Amino acid sequence: MKKKVIYTDKAPKAIGPYSQAICIDSMVYTAGQLGLDPATGELVAGLVQEQTRQSLTNLKNVIEAAGSTLEHVVKTTVFLKDMIDFPKMNAVYAEFFGENPPARSTIAVAGLPKGGLVEIEVIALIP
């Protein structure tokens, strides 16, 4: 079993002592991604829809750097600041995971870094 650290400049740099993702064998485990613009490190303008879209775009770029794709995601965990945003997050999420979506947990949290509205992490297979 070999552990490999994944990094891409197409996703925000870690804002703490963690890696964007770790690969072990044929699996990739990502850190949670906020709706941060990789160029500025700041939250994208807008509401939960825009932050969800950016979070999932960041995750797409991280898992592609690991040699995987969104089609190979098997599990996601979504952290929402407020469950009232669930339908809005869910609509954007469906754009990324249409047919045969991965298993998912969605959890309401008291707060997220940088005042984010949503944070998402994934586990994916590396084909």
Give a written overview of the molecule.
The protein is an alpha+beta fold and 127 residues long. The chain has a single domain, classed as RutC-like (60s Ribosomal Protein L30, Chain: A, 2-Layer Sandwich), CATH 3.30.1330. Helices cover 23% and strands 28% of the residues. It contains 2 helices and 7 strands, in the order ββββαβαββ. Strands 1, 2, 3, 4, 5, 6 and 7 form a 7-stranded mixed sheet that branches. Helix 1 packs parallel to helix 2. The longest helix is centred in the middle third of the chain and has 18 residues, at 48-65.
Quote the beta fraction: 25-35%
**Which ranges are low-confidence, i.e. pLDDT below 50, for 5 or more consecutive residues?**
none
Could you describe the largest sheet, including whether it forms a barrel? 7 strands, mixed
Q: Helix segment count?
A: 2
Shape: globular
CATH topology value: 60s Ribosomal Protein L30, Chain: A
**CATH class category label:** Alpha Beta
Radius of gyration: 14 Å
Q: Give the helix level as a range of percent.
A: 10-25%
The CATH homologous superfamily corresponds to: RutC-like
Q: Structural class from helices and strands? A: alpha+beta
* Count of the separate structural domains: 1
Cα separation of the termini: 17 Å
Q: What's the SSE pattern?
A: EEEEHEHEE
Named CATH architecture: 2-Layer Sandwich
Please state the average pLDDT score: 97
Key terms:
127 residues, alpha+beta, 60s Ribosomal Protein L30, Chain: A, 7-stranded mixed β-sheet
